[in-house]
Design brief:
Layout: H1 2-21, H2 31-66, H3 70-83, H4 90-106, E1 114-118, H5 125-132, H6 136-142, E2 155-159, E3 164-168, E4 173-178, E5 181-187, E6 190-191, E7 199-208, E8 212-214, E9 217-219, E10 231-235, E11 241-243, E12 254-256, E13 260-261, H7 264-273, E14 279-283
Parallel strand pairs: 3-14, 6-12, 11-13
Antiparallel strand pairs: 1-2, 3-4, 4-5, 7-10, 7-14, 8-9, 10-11
Helix pairs in contact: 2-3, 3-4
Length: about 280
């Protein structure tokens, strides 16, 4: 009998303990609201370790960036973007990742996409740009060249992998890519009344400070009426291309006559990267 009473007593104590530690319902909540509250608490508890891991990775990435270890910093940013895509501050991480990409592209830091070319007799920047599928502008910027003169024996860091461009009309964005990798996303304007063509195009012409031919008139580059802005990347479809703007306040809207319009400072950045022959894909 004593053994039975002891067992009953233990069971009672266990039940009392479980009752004490049970999740407390808020008397002001409905049963459904209590379930939601408990679920949200569980989600927060599960997310806590992830936030710690993200913060650790972010600290690592920024420290590497601060010390100019750009390739390693980029890899850590990529891990955050891949493994924690639902992170609440993922847009900030994406922006910093894009900044790292641009620094890598324009600096002489060795990267998987670069080669070191030692200048030989007969080399010119134009020949090297054509050989490696890049632009004279990018070779000069990467190597801090003040003019087009290069010397025999000089070692140049050259970006050797092709860029490609993807334009999404519905979102008014232009994506700069290297293969399948997204390097940077730009806000753009596209054509009103769905006038921007869709399909695959090739960059056929490149112009600095383009003249605009409009209704039989020639609008000079420095005219405030020249809607082309400071750069022109023309497609193999006559009359269409990517260009700058004199109305930056309209970027992000469908307001053009069919071209893809960018802020001048951003189209200038893109222009430095994009040689003739670059593929452009435009979708609705």
């Amino acid at each position: 009998m004593n053994r039975r009473n002891l067992i009953i007593g233990v069971i009672v104590l266990i039940l009392i303990f479980l009752w004490i530690i049970r999740p407390k319902n808020n008397p002001n909540m409905t049963p459904d609201e209590n379930v939601v509250a408990v679920h949200e608490t569980q989600q927060e508890e599960a997310a806590a370790p992830a936030k710690v891991e993200i913060q650790n990775l972010y600290n690592q990435a920024t420290n590497l960036n601060r010390n100019n270890n750009l390739v390693e910093s980029k890899e850590v940013y990529q891990k955050i973007l891949t493994d924690y895509s639902d992170y609440e501050n993922i847009d900030r991480i994406q922006k910093e990742y894009e900044d790292i990409n641009m620094r890598l592209i324009f600096s002489n830091t060795p990267a998987p996409q670069t080669v070191i070319h030692e200048v030989v007799s007969g080399d010119t920047l134009g020949k090297l740009a054509k050989k490696y599928g890049t632009t004279i502008e990018l070779i000069k910027l990467k190597n801090n060249l003040k003019n087009d003169i290069i010397r025999i024996g000089q070692r140049l860091t050259i970006w050797s992998q092709p860029f490609n461009i993807f334009v999404d009309k519905s979102q008014n964005i232009l994506i700069l890519k290297n293969g399948d990798e997204v390097l940077k996303v730009y806000d753009v304007s596209t054509g009103s009344n769905n006038s921007t063509p869709v399909g695959e195009f090739i960059v056929k012409s490149r112009l600095i400070d383009p003249v605009w031919f409009h209704n039989g008139a020639i609008v000079p580059a420095d005219s405030p009426r020249n809607v082309l802005g400071t750069r022109w990347l023309g497609f193999d479809l006559p009359g269409y291309g990517i260009h700058g703007t004199v109305e930056p306040e309209n970027i992000g809207q469908q307001v053009t006559a069919g071209c893809v319009r960018m802020r001048n400072e951003e189209v200038e950045e893109l222009f430095n990267l994009i040689p003739q022959g670059t593929k452009v894909v435009i979708v609705d």
